[in-house]
Amino acid sequence: MTMTEYFPLSPIGVGDWEIEAFGSLYCRMALAHSVSIYALTTHLRTWWKQKHPDDDSAKKNVTNAMNPMLCGIGPNVATFTNIVGNATGCTTLDRTTLLSLRPAISQNGHALVRKGRAWCPACMADDVNSEKQFYDRLIWAIPAIKRCPVHKVALESTCPQCGHAQAHYHHLGHMELCCLCKKPLLSDPSRWEVVLHPLPYEKECLQLVKEISTGNLASVAEDAYGTFVKEFSDYLSPVGAKISRHTYRAPRRPQKARETTRPRFMTLLKRCMAFGIDPTDLFRDPVGAAKSACLLEFARLDLPPDIKPRKSTELIGLALERLRSGLLESDYDQLPSLAEIARDLGVSKGFLNYHHGLICAEYARHRTGCRNKRTAKEVKNVVAYLRGGPIKKYPSAKFPSHDHLVAAAVRDVGVAVWIARRGLGIALKEHSDRHAHVK
After folding, report:
1. What integer pLDDT is reported at residue 212 of this predicted model?
2. Nearest to 228 by CA among 199, 197, 188, 268
3. d(CA 372, CA 379)
4. What confidence tens digit (pLDDT) does each residue in 386-424 have?
5. CA 316, 318, 319 angle in degrees (round to 5)?
6. pTM above 0.70?
7. Residues forming a β-bridge with 154
8. What is the band of 291 on the pLDDT scale with cuts at 50, 70, 90?
9. How many CB atoms lie within 10 A of CB 423?
10. How far is Cα 306 from Cα 304, in angstroms, rounded to an integer?
């Protein structure tokens, strides 16, 4: 079998952020050849084996991939973009995936792409109504994208008919049909969720996909973030370097020597936002991005230092005296909280815990114990009050409900409502047990 026997398909939307995902092109290829995705995969693997008998990279079936868009950085994606590119003669298939980011992010590609399909229902409705070819966009595969930037509508991922999450494409490649019930995925506009404001990282992801689509980001620097952090630290002065280490932490490193890990995609986006740089600039030129970040950091260092006044040593002794005197008190009403003690001394609770951590913990336990004793005493008084008469008159015109008994206990005993309810529960149980015994 020769290469000319496959139709020369090209991805839709090349050069724009709406470029087609590779899995979508793969479905269109199956439709063009009037076979199922499984049959097309088997056919391509056989064809590739005949042309390259020594290459056994295409062992797995892409129809079982966890990401149906096939646009991550895994080995299956690299293998089948290469095979399909050779079979169709298309040289721009690498732009339908995020494979170009592989040297700069974590090898497992965690949180890089979704584990299922997601689409804009408005885009699907426009294409179906205008009889255009609907296709999945590469941007929809990124988990940080929650809405369509064009229609301001939240992306959908489940069938409106059966509610099944679209973990795979339709077996014949119909992108507008459910993979389970085979019914249309087109939903009623009344179900669409409008999202007017952009979510975090949407702008950065759109710019990143556009750069990949135009071919400007065909390759990225190896361990771009690691290079950036190193250059950033080297450019800063000793004061600036100290700030960078405590403010912008590098990715965690494994325990084994000479092994390094690259950051996850979402982690890298967050770090770029913290540094105030564009992710595409980091991928293309980490050294230049480090210089730009240093200029921003030096601008921050021009601000006058804000040095807080130190507390006098006398306050440490006064705080210790207040805590020790409180431990000798047994009346809960005479025991202020740690926050009240700190406020009286003009310090914070952190100041007390820092200088007298053990005695602060002991004081808190002592205060809690005194509060529990007072609560038990008040509950006991409520029970005694109810035994003395009100519980015997329940139910009656004077006490027709529990609320009337509680109100009487609050008024006559002088306790809180929750204390009165707790005492009422005990009194009612004793009253019912006594009547049951008499019967």
Report:
1. 94
2. 268
3. 10
4. 888 888 888 888 888 999 989 999 999 999 999 999 988
5. 65
6. no
7. 147
8. confident
9. 25
10. 6
Interacting residues of 398 by C-beta distance below 8 A, sequence separation 6+: 404
Contacts of residues 383-387 at CB distance under 8 Å and 24 or more positions apart, as own/partner, are: 383/423, 383/426, 383/427, 383/430, 385/409, 385/412, 385/413, 385/423, 386/423, 386/424, 386/427, 387/427, 387/430
Q: In three state form, how does the secondary structure of 219-260 look?
A: CCCCCHHHHHHHHHHHHCCHHHHHHHHHHCCCCCCCCCCCCC
Residue type at 109? G
Q: Which residue has the tokens 């040289």?
A: 91
In tens, the pLDDT along 384-393 reads: 998 888 888 8
b (16+ CB within 10 A) / e for 314-334: eebebbeebbeebeeeeebee
Report d(CA 249, CA 241) in Å as an integer.
Answer: 12
pLDDT at 249 over 50: no
- Can you read off the two tokens belonging to residue 61? 């079936």
The answer to whether residues 29 and 103 touch, using CB atoms and an 8 Å cutoff, is: no
| Angle of helix 22-32 versus helix 37-51 axis, rounded to 10 | 90
pLDDT tens sequence across 345-392: 988 898 899 999 999 999 999 999 999 999 999 999 999 998 888 888
- Is residue 40 within 8 A of residue 115, CB to CB? The reply is no
Residue with tokens 């406020």: 343
Q: Which tokens go with 343?
A: 């406020």
**DSSP secondary structure of 94-111:** GGGSSGGGGGGS-TT-TT
In total, the chain counts a number of residues equal to 439
Taking alpha carbons only, the member of 156, 216, 218, 213 closest to residue 186 is 156
Tokens 């135009």 belong to: 214
Give the end-to-end CA distance of the chain in Å, rounded to a whole number: 97
Q: Contact at 8 Å (CB) between 86 and 3?
A: yes
89, two tokens: 């003669």
For 6: left if phi > 0, alpha if psi spans -120 to 50, otherwise beta; the answer is beta
Cis amide linkage into residue 395, ω under 30° from 0: yes
304 Rama class: left (phi>0) / alpha (psi -120 to 50) / beta: beta
d(CA 408, CA 427): 14
